[in-house]
Amino acid sequence: MLIVLGLGILWFSGVCAAILDGRRRWVGFASVAAILAAIAALVALGMNVRDEGPQTMTAGGWPSGVGIGLTADMLGVTFALLSLGVLLAALTFEVFNGVRSQSFPALVLLLGAGLTGVFLTADAFNFYVFFEIAMISSYILTGYGDEGRQLRSATIFVIVNLLGSAFFLMGIAALYHQTGRLDMAGIAARVALLNPTSVILSAVLIFTAFGIKLGIFPFHFWLPAVYTGTRPAVAAILSGAVANIGTYGLLRWGGGMLPDELHTAAPMFFALGVISILYGSLQALSRRSVAEVVAYSSIGQVGFILVALAIGGPAGFAAAVLFAIVNAVNKTLLFLSENLRGWLTGFAFAVGAFSVAGVPPAGGFLGKAGLFQVAAQDDNWIVIALVVVGSVLSFIYMFQIYQRRFWTPEVAESANAVASPVSVRAVVVVLAIITLLIGFWPEPVLWVSEQAGQSFATTRP
Amino acid sequence: MNNDMARQAARLLLLPTWMVAFAILIKGYSDSGDGFSGGVIAALGVIMQYVTFGTAVAEKLRPVRYARQIALTGLLLALATAFTPVLRGQSIMTHFPGPNEHATHIGSLELTTPFLFDIGVFLLVMGVCVGVFDLLAHATRRDRS
Amino acid sequence: MTLIVSLAIGVLFAAGSYLLLQHDFIKVVGGTILIAHSVNLFIMVSGLSRGTEPIYPLGDGARVSDPLVQAMVLTAIVISFGVTALLISLIYRVYVSHRSVDIEHLSDFEERLVQLEEQQVPPEPGIGVLEDREVDEDDESDQPDRDGIQRDERATE
Known about the structure:
The complex is a heterotrimer.
Chain A: H1 2-19, H2 25-52, E1 55-58, E2 69-72, H3 74-97, H4 104-120, H5 124-142, H6 148-179, H7 184-191, H8 196-214, H9 222-229, H10 232-257, H11 259-264, H12 266-285, H13 290-311, H14 313-336, H15 343-357, H16 365-377, H17 381-407, H18 422-440, H19 443-453
Antiparallel strand pairs in A: 1-2
Chain B: H1 3-26, H2 35-53, H3 55-58, H4 62-65, H5 67-87, E1 105-106, E2 109-110, H6 113-144
Helix pairs in contact in B: 1-2, 2-6, 5-6
Chain C: H1 2-20, H2 25-45, H3 67-98, H4 103-120, H5 144-156
């Protein structure tokens, strides 16, 4: 029952919020309370998983291979908590700032329900259904604000992700045709028996879909346009919560169901990761506005995740999860503070900048250190050099944008010339404190990512 | 074709269209049919009113004025049907007369919780289709004025 | 049979991709509809088998067509229907704002916005030079061009 509690809370409160007018303060605060309740339910579920191992529930009371299964293991619960945390921060930010559209809280809640479903399901087609629920909510959220820039972002976002969903569905149908099963465990068991030449096509389709979602190198064209055009809260949601679907999908489908294909494709993952890191960092060096720099920085950071996946094995997966956690917190912090002013925001932005660059004590260095450690174990000097180069570049562009934004006097302002309320800036400062906390006390995050990385048996020879 | 004839036909056909939609909903358990297709056909009846009578008249119909409420009622009904077994300790979406158990019949229709879920889907789809079409109908209206 | 369906899927996907690259937003939406339909057909073909309807009671040893594939296709059709409705509302919104459904016009508008924003930014000092004037955080720095942008946006609505 605990598995579906968080999902049920989010879904029901999303529908209730859709009936009400989201612009009112009490509706916004009630939605924030709903997300908090769902986070509490997921934490309880996480503690259950830590004590008793993965929890399962099959819908309809059917036997395990027949019905649609829900499985909560450490990987899923981690990502669900991460995404809901980002949604909480973004929704609180926007509620304090003043919600402009009456469906905003409802959409965030429904997005949360979709994301929780994605991370907790053990059935391939159910994954697709929850994935679509989350994506449709995010399509509408991208257009929040209703200005020309948001419309263009929404248009690009919808069409590109529609293509991604089509590829994903083709991959699922192809896997079903080859294995005859839809539950993830059944597919994993049967894929091992198949001729790898036939499975590689399905794997390519699925990888393309998640690549589009993440925004890694060949599929990155939509990312800057969308992240810079949307409002800050929505950009934070997209980069901190929705992009997690890509990472989780590569881990679950690549590491869990198609491990041999992941191993075969590791050189290509590595190459694409390297290109993403270099491309993102070099582009970010030449940009002028905060949103653009952070958007191109996102391309760079997901390149690191791809490199971690290319290394593979439980250590590589743990490094990927660690990087995803740290990256989500960073990006939320940076996007939420992109339009604010004042010395509090400057401090928060500085923490975020140091985190992206990988400077202790801001938490970002954990991700890079994890990657460093995994690479050093394999004597992989290329990765070590890559991490160093990537960190240096990110330090340069982050420092550059920090100086441009908070040190030089500002003449051109963003849409509101009035200073934003203190509560809004408080949200950003809390995020910065969390980032510092991760840096000073990394044990929980390290333990969680290690557990998550061990969620599948290693088949790496 | 005479416009008056179209209007007469549309006015007369609204309720029979809804009858057909409801019939498709009900016969889905022993023949081909579904809540989704029933909802789309019910929405088609309303859209027919838009096409023949124009936006100003058709937007006063009850299903159009309450489209959002209809859709959200349907969604709540479907969600309640799915999540109520969880409160009783069973899995999500466990249906009430289980497989091979006896169910109350009205004719050939069995009264089971899947039927309730389907009604929810029917209302949801009808509300959504009508709502979206209402939005687009207002586009053309503003354009002309 | 599979060959013919595969050819149909290929033709649909090709037509959809061609339409996706057009300038007119409505044609782009038509392209996404075609691609979604080709994927639905692909799902159907992944479980293609001759047989009776998969509804109880079945005859003994009767071959039944795959119900799982039909359920998946139904779900996929509903999802693509929802997204198409969303895209059409987006077309409406774009049309109301810009009076045209050409995607190029949307991009041009965005570029004009960016140009106007860049023109207000004063020529900045280099990266290494820090201006050490006494910063007075003046909220009322003259921003006539910002209002100009607002007026421009409202005029196009």
